Structure formats: C-alpha cells, structure tokens
Amino acid sequence: MVNKQGQTRLAKYFAEFLTTDERRALEGEVVRKCLSRTDKQCSFYEHRQYKIVYRRYASLFFMIGVDDDENELAVLEFIHCFVEVLDKHFGQVCELDIMNEPEMVHYILDEMLLNGQIVDTNKANILEPVQLLEQVTT
Amino acid sequence: MSIRLRELIKAVRGCKTAAEEREVIAKESAALREAFREQDQSYRHRNVAKLMYIHMLGYPTHFGQMETLKLIAGSGFPEKRMGYLGLMILLDERQEVLMLVTNSLKMDLNNTKNMYIVGLALVALGNICSAEMARDLAPDVEKLMDCPAPYIRKKAALCAIRVVKKVPDLLEQFVDKAAELLNDRSQAVQLGGATLMLQVARGEPGLILELDGSVVAKYRPFVPALCRVLRSLLQPGVSPEHDIGGITNPFLQVKMLRLLRLLGRGHTESSDAMSDILAQVASNIEANRNAGNAILYEAVQTIMGIESIGGLRVLAINILGRFLANRDNNIRYVALNTLAKVVSVDTQAVQRHRATIVECVKDADVSIRRRALELVYSLVNEANIRTLTRELLDYLAVSDTEFKPDLTAKICMLIQRFAPDRRWHLDQLLAVMLQAGAFVKDEVARALLVQLANTPDLHAYAARAFYRALAAHPDTAAPSLLTTAVWVIGEYGEMLLPSMGGPLLEGEPPLAVSDGDIVSLLEMLLRRHRSEHVVVEHVITAAMKLTARLPAQVARLRAIIGRFTASSQLEVQTRSTEYGKVFAHERIRSQLLERMPALDEAEYLKANNLDGAAAAGTSAPPPRQPNGSSGGAAPAAAAPKASGAADLLGGLDMLGGAPAPVAAPAVKSLVDDLDALLGGVPAAAPPAASATAAPGASTAAAVAAVSDDLLNLLGVGPAVPPAAPPAPTLAPSSAAAAVDPLASILGGPVAQPISSTLTPPPAPASALPAPTTIVAWQQHGLVMSFALTKHPTNPAVTEVVSTTTNNNQTDVTDFTLQVAVPKFMQIRLDPASGSLLAARGGSVTQRLSVANSQHGTKQLVMRLRITFTAAGGQSHEEMAEVSNFPPGY
Predict the structure, then answer these.
(1) Of chain A residues 27-46, which have a CB less than 8 A from chain B?
(2) How much is the mean pLDDT over chain B?
(3) Is domain A2-137 given the CATH code 3.40.47.10 in the classification?
(4) Where are the domains positioned within chain A?
(5) Positions of chain B with pLDDT lower than 70, given as ranges
(6) Subcellular location, in the record's words (chain A) (predicted)?
(7) Rounded distance, CA B786 to CA B788, Å?
(8) Closest-CA residue in chain B for A120?
C-alpha cells in the first residue's frame, strides 16, 4: 500500500524473504513503475518475475505482486473487496486511518489472506474477530 | 519516557528531509533498545508495534526480535496478537529464533478455550512455517481441519498448503482431507479446500515423478461435485454475504474453474463431464462487471486448457473477441494474455483477431504492448510480414530500452525468415539498424552482406540507401550500421555517383553525390567514431577499395589510409600500413581491389567453370591475365568475370581448393604478385608495368629482385592444378613454366595487355567489327579519343573506351572524366585506370557503356566534364559536348 508520493504505508510479504535492502529496492522499483502509469492504462504490469496488479483509491495505491498464472481480474476484485472491508471497519477509510493504525490493517489483512491465498471475502466473517478484539482491548 | 506509536508516526511525518527522518528513527531505535534491555513489560506491546513501523520504513529492526517471542509467550490476547504480527513481519523462516517459537505455536494450536488464538497461530504458521516446524506441527494442523468452527477450518486448510509446500512428504495425509472440505457448508472453507486441492494436485516438481499425477487421478471423481458447487454458485442470491455485483463469490468460482482445468487437462471423460457447466458459466455470466469478467476469463482458460468440444471453444474464442473489443484496458490485457496462451492450440482462431492485436501493439500502455507483441511474433507469416514488420518497426522506435534487444532480435529473425524479396529485406534491416543498431547481431549484418554481394541488381541501391542513412545519422549510427554501410560504400562506392549507379529503383528518392562527398563522409566517420576501432578498420578498407572506384579521389583516400600507420590498434595499424604498400604496386592495385565475389561458394564455382568453358570455346578468347594488364591497361578488360579470381583481398581463401582449372594459371600468377607484395619485396613496379607509362620507374635491380622472387614461387608452379585446356594465350605460360618461368611470366602475357590499352577490349573477333575511333575532346595538350563498339547483340548499346593521352612535357594529375547523357539514354562508367597522365604520352583509359533507348531515331550525344591539375598545381575544369558520333550510333 503506497501513497501518491511513493511512501509505503503498509507492506506484507508472503513467498520469499527479502533483506531490508532488497525490500527497499524492490518497493522503490515497483512503486516508481506504478506511479509512472496513467489512469487510462491497464492495472497490470510486469516486474521481474512478478506481475503487479494495482488499483488506486484516491491518493492510495494498492499493489499486489502475483505470479504469472494468477487471475488478474480476480486479484483486482480482491483489492476492492479489501478496501470495502477497510471502509466498513474504519467508516470512510482514508490514508490517515491506515497510516495511524497499521497494526489494525494487518489484522484485517490476516483475516483475508494467508500465505498469499484468500481466506475469506465475507465482510462479516472478516470483521467479526477483529472487532471482537477491539472491544476486549478498549 | 516512551512515546506512543501514533506520536512516532507523527514525528516521522513531520520530517522534511530524509536525514531528519533517519535521525528520528535512530533516536527511537535507541529508546527501544533501552526499553528492551530494561525488560519493560508494560510497553512491550506498543514497542513492537513501533518496531514494525520502523521496519516498514526500511530500517533495521533485528534487535527487537526476541521481544516478539516474549509477547507470544505471554498470556493476554492483545499481546499474543501483536507478538504474532511481529513474528510474521520481522522474522523469516531462516532465522534460528524461529525454533524457539515452535513450542508456543503448538500450545496455541491446541488452545481449546479461545478459537481466535488458534486462528492467530494458524495464520502465523501459514505465513512463516519452516520445514522443521511443518514436520512438528502437521498433525495439529490436520486435526484442526476437522474442527467444528469454520473459522478454524478455513485457516487450517490454507495453513496446510504451506506445510505440504515445505515438506512434500506430508502431502499424502492431506489428499483426502482437502477433498472433504469441498462439501463444507462454509464457502470460505470450500475455497480453502479448493486451494489446497490445487496445491496438492500440482504438487512439487519432484513429487510428480513419484506419484505421477495420481493425485490428479484421485481427484477426478470429484469433478461432478465441483460442478455441483459451481452450479449452485451460479444461482443468484445463494449467499448474499459473498455477493459481489450480483455474482456469488467470484473468488471461489475462479478457484473451482482452475481446479477443473487441472483435472480436465488431457482427460476426455472429465472434460466431457465439466463441459455443461463450463458452457453455462460462459453464457450466463454477466460481462459488465469486473467480477463477472474475472470468471469468464478463467472459464475461457479452462475451456481452452481441457479437451473440450469444438462448440465450446468457439464460445470461448468469441468471448475473447468481445474482450479484445472492450474499451477497458484491463479486459484487453487479459484477452491478449489468454490469446497468447491459446495461440498454440488454435492459431487460426487467433489470426482472426490479428487486426485488433496489431492495434494493441500501438497502445499507449506498455503492458498491453508487450502482450500484443508476443502474440504478433507468433502470428507472422509470409502473407502478413510486410504490414506486421512495419508495425513492429514503429514500435521499436518508442519501446523501452530494456525491451529493445529482444525486440530487435525477433524482428531480424522474422525478416530473415519471411522476407518476400531482397530489396524489402535490405530496407527493413536498414531501418532496424537505424533504430536499434546497437542490438543488431553481427551475424544478421553479415548475412545481409552475403546476400547483397549475391544480388548485383541491388548493389547501387544498397550503396545509395546506406549512404543516405550514414549522411543523415553520422553521430547516432551504431557500429553495426556503420560497419555494414561502410563496407557497402567501399564495395559499390562508384555506383553512388548519379552517372554510374544506373536508374533509381521504384519509389527511391534521387541522391546527388559527388565522389568528393563520399570521401568526405568517410573522413567525417573517422572523426566521429575514432575510438571504435572496428569502424576505423572498415573505413580504412573501404577507403582502399574506393581508390580503385573513385580515381579522382586517390590522394585524399590515401591520406585517410596513411593516417593510421602509427595507430595503437594492431589491426588498424596493419591495414593502414599494408594498404599503403599497395600503392607501390600501381599496376595491380585496381585488380587487388576488385569487388568481392559473391560469397555463395557453390554458386561461384559453378559460374566460374561455365565461364571458363565458354572462353575456351571461342576462337580468340580474351587473355585473362590480370597481372599483366598494367597501369596503362583498362582494368575493365580483366574484369568483371575474372574478378572472382582477381580479387585478392576477397578471393584468396578461395584459392585453397578451387578446382577451377582454366582460371588457375591466372590465379597463380596473382598469388605470386601478392606474395611479392606481402613478402616485402622492395616496392618496385614490375617491369611489365613500365611499358607505356612511367618510364624509368623500373631498374635492372628491381627486375632482378622481382624475377628472383617469381622464380622461387614458380618452383611450385606445376603443383597448381594442371591447366586443363587453357586458352591459347595461356598455353605457353604453363608449358614454358618449367623451362623459362621468367619469360613466361614477364614476356608472354604482358604483350597482350599492352595492346589492349589502345584497342577496345578483346572479344570474339568474328562477332565484333573493328571499333570506330573518334576524337571526343582535345585541349591543353590532352587528347581524348573514344573507341566505339556496338554491343554484339543489342545495337542500342555502345561500348566506349575512352583513352586520354598527355602530349605535354609535364605530368597531369587528378584527372577525372565525368559523362552525362540525355534522359533517354543510360550510361554506366567503369572506374578509370588512373588519374595520373605522365608527361609525353602517358594515358588513362576508362570504359563507358551507353544504352540509347531511342536508337535509330536519335543520335548518341554526351556531355563531358573533365577536371585535372596541370603543371604548377593549376587545376582545370573543362566542359565539352560530344556530338560527332558516326551515323548509326
């Protein structure tokens, strides 16, 4: 998750582990490529061995790197689903919410993705544990 | 003392520069270390959160790893949650710290009070599990797949994926479990089951060998079950909470379709079983939403991936056609992607969309262009190469640099394979070289040159095309273009002159170039590309070749060649020095520098043999004694048929096994000459050369030196393939070789060429009337006479040998003759024999061939432009009109 200025707001890695430096370099390249694309262009581009699927919401870019035989349109749909869940949780989600509560976004994401595979897309199912815990802690 | 995460974020956001940010982070990291050392319990949870934030910003956080473990070991849920999150983000499976966490994980997996803790542990395990952990915890995961709570089941299924990925041996125990999940009531669990089945069925590469697809076979009975699930999903409103734009759980549908593809591939029965549902999906899904398109996209891939019936495929291809025509770039992208995958299955169907695909090559979007290009490559054939190459070249101009090498190679390959004709081939490769010369491989350029050498019709055209290219882009031209172009100009340079190049080809812009311009171009290339010695080498050779083609420019060309005698590049220096030496052998220079023969060896030899037979058959064959036709003789007399043998620079390697008996003696004598040259014999013009020109150039000593050398060489003379019935004039030379080699070499053959200076080129005497001679021009003590002969078969063509003689008491240098004719005539000028007219009778000959298209109605007429430098360096330029051709010409 990256904003328009190219600042990373949230990042999660599944398949392979990268060192801090590799990670920075990869994020830099991917983000630069993404930001250089215009609205009219399609939401996919290739980078190294990955295919990047991205979607822009206001000033935030959501990017997912997938392998070659993934269904790009479904990934796109998943991003939207994720944003809807965030929206439901935060209520009119904005960059500030994500920035100030990265751990919460991680929790939500963990309910949706596991090891790069979709766990669930049912908003109620996803938010139930998260909100339950929210009540416990506060 | 410790700030909150939100405050840290605020502080970082407030930083204006990267340095400031680094400072804030460094300070906070120090504070964190301090807190960790003090075993601060109450803020541990918050500190790890800050650590993750720092990690996300790209700063080192290894010092906090232990803290996450402590959090996990804690009992409170919020702590555990943060601990596991930190574990997933900050650590990876390679770290040994991870071993310490296995126990905590096991405990949490078996927690019976709080299913969310179990969920947490499953997520963490699924994300970071290593092989050891997989082995230890696999039974727990397996057990959890039967857990009554769907929340646990779905996560356990996905966690199992990681486990079997890490330890393929464990795969077997999950095979059945995965299939059971398909019948689960929860769609999330079904999704997890399908994902796990996919993973299990795909297996690891090594595993497929062992089980050999048996997993796939085992899963095939589940095809009806899968179809049933899929069909239920097609009913609207089955499960509103998974509904996206009127479509129920597209993610699950996509997964199912993919699983079906895997099961149906190469298996007709299963393919038949699923074709109904596939048709239903393909025709019922609404394509106006992204979710629907995602399903259609997957369905099309499945239809094309399995052994489906024709009707279904037509349906799929039609969907792709609709996708391609869609205005949404995303849809077009996936359409191209799919077409690329199915092109091997059904080329014909893809060809139907060619126009649209080519349109996509021009798209502004690089992702679409790239996809479209890959498709285009596989669609090219003889019928569409012209249009497609144009498109590809257009794209080459705008493509990314990283993409160019591949694209260039592909275009070159396509051109070579499918080129409809040679001019087109040349044009296209030239265009490629101009746009991406740096990526054109040497072999491609070389193949082009061989082809050119074999295509005389294109020589002039190629020279003009390359000249234009170089003149337009002298700086940006890549070495591949430079070397190729310079080679062509060196070989066919004189054809650049409008008077020599013959008619322009259709659609070709005219080119006005003088011989001086050509040399200037070479000089400029040397200035601009001094450091690339490959280019310099080519320029030197081209300059040398041009000395025989552009007689008026010899001095300048020689200066170019001589400039590199002290070059630090060995090859450049060698060429420069050796070519310089050639000027000492004026007599043979023009033959040394003959055109390269066609390089197709088989073809060349055949032509040569035929030629020899024909020559032997005529009553008075031309004496093919290239080494004898000296400075004063017309070089054209020896060329062009014999050029193969005469071209030493190019033809030497062909002598090795050349079974061309008739040409052999000539070749042999040339070898002698070359040996003399390379052996460093004192630069003495062999005496034969002095017969007409340059009196006093040879001395007795020189004669002796040369003859000695020749004698030595001729010692091996008889070893040359026996000169089976050679031309009559050659007979004495080979017969006498053993007895008196010197005489045969110096005496015999020489007599003929000298006479040829004054008479038109020898031709079968019976076929040709004696030439008519007219005086074309006479001024400043110079006399130019034209010896005219009609072409034996075509009376419209007149061969003219111009001989200019100097009757002054001083030498005349830089002599050039240019000839222009009216539009209805065509003229070809061969290079002159030289540009120097020695005092008292020195002469230069030049051969012209004029074709009068209105022969019989209009008389031959020419305009001459003669330039020369007389004694005292005074240069003259004379114009003259020749209209005194005898009637009938």
Answers:
(1) 27, 37-38, 40-46
(2) 72
(3) no
(4) 2-137
(5) 1-2, 40, 92-95, 203-215, 237-240, 245, 501, 598-770
(6) Endomembrane system
(7) 6
(8) B188
